[in-house]
Amino acid sequence: MYFETRYKSHHNSSGLIGKYYPQKRVTEEEFLNRLKEEPKDVPRAIYVHTPYCDKICSFCNLNREQLSGSLDSYADYIVSEFDKYGDYRYFKEKSVDVIYFGGGTPTVYKNNQLEKILQSVNRNIKFSAEYEFTLETTLHNLNDEKIELMNKYGVNRLSVGIQSFSDEGRKFYNRTYSKNETIERLIQLKEKFNGEVCIDIIYNYPTQKIEDAIEDAKIIKKLDLGSSSFYSLMVHEGSTLSHDIKDEKVKVQEDLKRERELHDAFIKELTKDSDYYVLELTKIAKKGRDKYKYIKTRNFGGDTFPIGVGAGGNVDNISIFRMKKEMSMFVEKSDYQQRLDKFSGLFQFPQIDKNIVKNILTSEEMIVFEELLFELKENNFILEDKEHYKLTEDGLFWGNNISREILTTVVEKTLGLIKK
After folding, report:
1. Least confident of 148-152, 154-158, 275-279, 333-337
2. What is the pLDDT of residues 87-109, one digit of tens each?
3. Is 31 within 8 Å of 320 (Cβ atoms)?
4. Cα(151)–Cα(158) distance, integer angstroms
């Protein structure tokens, strides 16, 4: 098996089941009735989206816009959503394991706006004993008051968009602060924030050298950070970078050999002392520290309740997409769709429990999977022992391709056998 193009995101291998099944729309009333029922005993997360940034990264075209004016009305909207849904049995009778504020930049709110949002969370949500409460952030829009508010209201994890420590890389990504200033601010943040500090790294910018990737990993270890994501640069249509490429201001070449060298150098350096390990395809965590429960909840069949414009998630078998403040779409998933989505999510991790796979797949699907597994092992993407399937170094690099290949092959070869 040989992949010519590398898929760099889990989005390339998730949500594929929908193309084989027509969407079944349900009403908001049907969704709200589900919230009145006794909550199921599954891991539960809340995802809150803030589609605003005060500074736009060069590569970004996500659901966000440049901040202009006050966010008072949007902050009030988020508060009203927590107050609205907090009255339902879904939240009154069962605790929440994970809360994740993404964006955009959730720390773009003013101090008073952030406080009333965090107050509404605490007013309406019961946290489980070992909850994880994350805010994505940049360094330049944090201040001591915001950090104190997050400590006060139970935020215990920050995901900081660093992208690169290199001065050249930071300039390319349109980041604030120099390398030395960035390091110093992370040191100060770790001193003031009570929870785990994690960062994002994006490698493979045009002038990046292997030494730059290794230096990023060394700094992460020196700062004793909880984890680091590591994504290869993706040029999204509509981003500043995509326009610069079209105007020939920037040249970005798809060089898989170079991309692989940067990928492997970063992982090797960060994990060589055995303090850090590969948690999932794009996340390296320090042992005994960051657990990244949010991604595990999403991939292992838990609920993700979405709040905010641009947010998406699910409650049981109903997927929810928040398009506007007063407009959401609700889609019901079949048992088949849920089962295969969970199966696909397993392969975002470097080690997969064989018993979980066997409990998900039918006998017909298992036969197809094992046939493909033989090919994957022959091509040195996967190893197998008595209890686990394990991705090799090649498997980690091509992980999203492998996940997509496994899912589409199993579905296309067996769908006619079980589809009603």
Report:
1. 333-337
2. 999 999 999 999 999 988 999 99
3. yes
4. 11
- What pLDDT was estimated at residue 238? 53
> Per-residue DSSP letters for 20-62?
TS--EEE-HHHHHHHHHSPPPSS-EEEEEEE-EESS--TT--S
Would you state the pLDDT for residue 420? 42
How many residues make up the chain in this entry? 420
User: CB–CB of 215/166 below 8 Å?
Assistant: yes
pLDDT in tens, 143-165: 999 999 999 999 999 999 999 99
pLDDT at 419 over 60: no
Return the closest-CA partner of residue 75 out of 117, 46, 107, 47: 117
DSSP string, 344-408: HHHTTSSEEEHHHHHHHS-HHHHHHHHHHHHHHHHTTSEEE-SSEEEE-HHHHHTHHHHHHHHHH
* Domain ranges, ordered by start, for the chain: 1-12+335-420, 22-299
**Alpha carbon distance 30, 319 (integer Å):** 12
| Alpha carbons 374 and 290: distance in angstroms, whole number | 34
Residue 5: per-residue pLDDT: 87
CA pair distance 302, 73, nearest whole angstrom: 31
DSSP one-letter string for 125-156: -PEEEEEEEEEEE-STT--HHHHHHHHHTT--
For the domain made up of 1-12+335-420, the CATH class stated in words is mainly alpha
DSSP state of 93: S
How many Cα atoms within 13 Å fall on the side-chain side of residue 284?
A: 26
Q: Characterize the bridge pairing of strands 351-353 and 382-384.
A: unpaired
- Residue-wise DSSP of 196-212: EEEEEEEE--TT--HHH
Indicate the class that CATH gives domain 22-299: alpha beta
Tell the residue number behind the tokens 């998933």, with chain if given: 333
CA distance 338 to 384: 26
